Amino acid sequence: LPRQPAAPPLLALDIGGTLIKLVYTASCGGGGAELRFAKFERRRMQECFDFVRAQGLVHRNGSTMGSSKENMALKASGGGAYKYTEDFREKLGVCLDKVDEMDSVVSGANFLLQSVPGAAFTHMNGKKSSVDISPNNLFPYLLVNIGSGVSILKVTGNRKFERVTGTHIGGGTMFGLAKLLTGCKSYDEFLQLSQKGDNFVLDLIVKDICGELVCQKQGLSTSTLASSFGKVITSKKKLTDYRPEDLASTLLSAFTYNIAQIMLEVDNISFLVASILRLRRVFFGGSYIRGHKSTMQNISYAIDFWSQSKMQAVFLQHEGYLGALGALMSYGD
Ligand code: ADP
Fold first, then answer.
1. Which residue, by CA, sits nearest to atom 1 of ligand 1?
2. What is the pTM of this model?
3. Which ranges in the chain are annotated with CATH 3.30.420.40?
4. ipTM surpasses cut 0.85
5. CATH class of 11-101+322-332
6. Residues with Cβ < 8 Å from 132, sequence gap 6 or more?
């Protein structure tokens, strides 16, 4: 970002159901500025306030000095921008200038895809490969934003999009259940547990129902999931008899595959006509993914398998910050 050397930092926020995301500028060599990212659990808002102060991000008008106290307005997206207006005014002396959540997510994604080389990548068979995005073949695309809930957007241009569908059964649901079932304290701990677990301890697969022989005869894949957590029903085990690792792994695969399925159905409806023309890409954003390899791997596998390789899952660097990035972009409006 080419900027004036003495320009004060810019800060934008996205206050979601689970996390507060911050994107801000910091001066770097040559008079330019670089983007920095930070996130906080919403229940720990004080840490966010302390951070903003310590980084000098509201130092101009955010002091408690008389009339200048409420002058500064920060661009903020997400539902929490409404709910916590007063807290930001009280603690930091700033107003929140609300920007539309979906608008911001789309602007953030378009910015990454059009202006940041190497921001998009695939993750197949353990291999991460960068995807070249040319502005000529970017639109239209589907964007699946997996946060506390899930939104699926069809993006047809800069600032042109439509929210096709969504589900309230998203990252918040998975992490909520994970806390109850595994006792994990953080999302990272949950992801680490899932890494060491085996979902087939709890998942019912086609082979369990039909028997291997029938599967082979009918050409069904024996390991296809029939029902996530389905094995529990016929088992005598109690919750404490299951390993937290296996529970975590089962949760992650249940939610990830489900979201991939929903997305493919949307794609069938949204792009029916264009589907033969080219390999279509679907972009995934939201903190649910959190740069976690096996989450990306599961999504990629599911999309590839169910679309018969007609579609490709593409991930984004800084995937959790799309809304905050879009809010930052809106300073230029
Ligand atoms: P929102 O804007 O609704 O808060 P995000 O895109 O920030 O949505 O994603 C929140 C989801 O990301 C959580 O529900 C959880 O599944 C996952 N997640 C990633 N990192 C964390 C974290 N540090 N704490 C809690 N949840 C996290």
1. 16
2. 0.92
3. 171-202+242-316
4. yes
5. alpha beta
6. none
